Amino acid sequence: HIAANWWSTLRDLYLESWRYYHSIHHIESLLNQVDEFRPLIQRPELLELAVWFHDAIYIPESKTNEKDSAKLFEEFLQQVDSTIDGSAVTRFILSTETHKPLMDGDNDLLLFLDMDLSVLGWPSDQYQLYSEQIRKEYICYSDSVFREGRIKVLNRLLNKGDLFYTDLFKQRYQNQAVDNMNRELQMLTDMKSTSNL
């Protein structure tokens, strides 16, 4: 009964009308990756919980989405009779704020962070759809404000060097991700130049 209530709560959250990318489809994509890489994952049940809760609270204007999502997970943990390592799941969720691991040496955490950013390295048409969905989620901001913010995000990611932590994801997604983001960055820069004419 408790599990059913939580499933309903999470489903309703991911079906919120302002979610275009951070929706139930994002969760399904991540769960599919957990299945694909299950042989490499030491604690798949923790990753699955982190997948379900990491974007549970998602309000584009908010600066505390990850912290609020972690709090929601902790509420869930208090209601279920479980031996789950809740601190690990909380750490996974909070690590998505900066996409830097909050603990060294945790390969499951690195895989989770890589899975969450794998969209950056998807084929260019899928990346284009993702970038359009992100714009729709931030429709509360004007084109110029969104452009400035998005350019900063892309530059920060591109300046990182390696976007992914694991060799598997570097090999699979790194080159395409750099191409995708450079293409988007050029488009946004061109739009900015045009709007200043």
Task: Give the integer mean of the pLDDT values.
Answer: 94
* % residues in beta strands: under 5%
What is the alpha-carbon Rg in Å? 17 Å
| Largest beta-sheet details | none
Overall 3D form: globular
Q: Which structural class best describes the helix and strand composition?
A: mainly alpha
Assign a percent range to the helix content. Answer: 55-70%
- The number of distinct helices, counting runs of at least 4 residues, comes to 9
Q: What is the tally of beta strands?
A: 0
Order of SSEs, N→C? HHHHHHHHH
Set out the fold topology.
Elements: H1 2-14, H2 24-36, H3 44-54, H4 65-79, H5 86-95, H6 107-117, H7 124-137, H8 143-158, H9 167-195
Give structural notes.
- The chain has 9 helices and no strands.
- It is mainly alpha-helical and 197 residues long.
- The longest helix is centred in the last third of the chain and has 29 residues.
- 26% of the residues are buried.
